[in-house]
Request: fold
Amino acid sequence: MPRKIRSERGELIKKRIFGEFGVFTFALPKIAEEVMPGQFVMLKIKDEKDPLLARPFSVFYAEDKVLELFVKRVGRTTTELFALNTGERVNFLGPLGNAFKNAGSSVVLIGGGSGVAPLNFYARKYGFGRFLIGFPSYLEGLFDIFPDGVDIVTEDGSFGKKGYPTDYLSGDEGIVYACGPLPMLRSLEKKRSKNLENTYVSLESMMGCGFGICAGCGVKKRKEEGYFRVCSDGPIFSFSRIAI
Ligand SMILES: Cc1cc2nc3c(=O)[nH]c(=O)nc-3n(C[C@H](O)[C@H](O)[C@H](O)COP(=O)(O)OP(=O)(O)OC[C@H]3O[C@@H](n4cnc5c(N)ncnc54)[C@H](O)[C@@H]3O)c2cc1C
Ligand code: FES
Reply:
């Protein structure tokens, strides 16, 4: 049975900024109660027509009627979000999309930049075997927000291991869950070429509606003609089913 998509106004109750990244905590009782790791919400800051469309964000964590987003500032909506004051309210739609299956605490999680968000929710709810996160550089306080045992990788080596998180995979791991920028996913695809079936990626494509109506979020099917809709067929896919 399809789950109910809720429209809810959420009050910003806490914000923490780390350079171009931020964690935003909203009081959002209905969505927070139902959302599962891997699912996303559509966020619209203002009712105005510009920007017209809401934007998708994976849930970084949810518990006790409170929901957290981990956001990279890149454009209009995210800039407005960073400027929001506590006590202000914004519009949410969710929970949307599929969730990560609970594969237990031996799963390997690998996230790059804002792509760490859905994996953090999985890690905190179900546990993990390894949790590799990649960022360009050290940012004060940023790495303290992740669970104990996380493996930090910075491109410039200013903190943790040096390079990219995919450098630290052998390819022979069991189940891998990943989310991050396209270059990271392409490198993951090469590393895991013999294990694509067990490699699941959450895609951060451009979206219009977020729930299957506009056809604005296609990803090519790997084995057959045609496209999946990232919003309603995903955002999580086995790498063996999609071509990026
Ligand atoms: C399922 C899902 C989960 C996501 N989760 C997160 C998350 O947890 N945290 C997070 O920070 N981000 C996440 N994203 C990405 C986020 O939705 C985008 O970065 C969003 O566009 C930001 O909105 P904006 O208005 O600030 O920027 P926008 O104005 O949308 O611009 C963002 C960037 O995209 C470029 N751009 C704009 N339109 C297009 C287009 N049509 N084609 C190609 N490029 C374009 C712009 O030049 C700019 O660099 C997620 C995306 C998806 C689909
Ligand atoms: S975003 Fe509209 S169909 Fe996917």
